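pasting for ref
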Amino acid sequence: MAISFKSIDEQIEILEKRGLKVEDKAKTKKLLLRSNYYDVVNGYSSFIQQSSDKYKEGATFHELYAIYAFDKRLKVVIFEYLAQSEAFLRTAVAYYFSKNYGADYLSSQNFIAQKAPKILGKTQKLIDFQNSKKATNAIKHYSKKYQQIPLWVLVNFFEFGHLNLFFGSLLPKDKVEILNYIADLYKEEYGKSLELLPSDFEIYLINIKEIRNKVVHDNLLLKYSLIKEYPANKNLAFPFNDLKTNTVFYTLLTMRLFLSKKQYIIFVNTIKNRVKNLERCLKTGDSKEILESIGFPDNWYELLTETQVK
């Protein structure tokens, strides 16, 4: 059976028949023309429905749209601090590799043998592409003037997947050196000793990349679960116990590996402010249920405030 096109007026009529109050139809029309009906309605309605085709008594389109807007605003916040996390990781990888090997990032002996061809090919392709551009960039400048590009310059052109691949291809001793540095900073910032295994850390990076992709492509974040579970680490999950390890919230905890305490305080408080804005718009929905859909425990803010956000 073919799916028929529905006008904005017909879309609103469907919502009203399902019990959703549309108090300002002119404004609702404008919002639905700017925001995909499927994204708004199919993505977030479950939070204010009593069944798949019936909204809770008193539920409004304003409330539904507020949940949709919260998801978007949360993604903006997460992206900002993921970018800061990524900058830290780029710096750490570039510093320790350069300390040990200089600009020898195209030498296979400095990487795990079976992984070397892929990372070397990808890196060379990136350099060639940037050098082929008409506009001047840092890679072209260093290539022309010095005939080599320092890794601390080149790494800024890596996409996050490229950065993950580079770290994953490093020799074990170099991974350990970088992770010991990260663990030392973590203890200094958060007061917790942390053993970071390269195999576990690479899963952290995979999951962070997964969340990053959801955020960058503006996909639905609420109700999302990660494909891989994080390896349990009580000093990374502190001060929480018995958390699911395949959630957005667990990812936000792992970002403490890359963010200073000051950065993390601002991050957490910004999320809390977004939650407060959402709660002002809720009539039938429950902010706890919404946050639980991405792994936030009931007392997430209070516990973080008591232990570190001071």
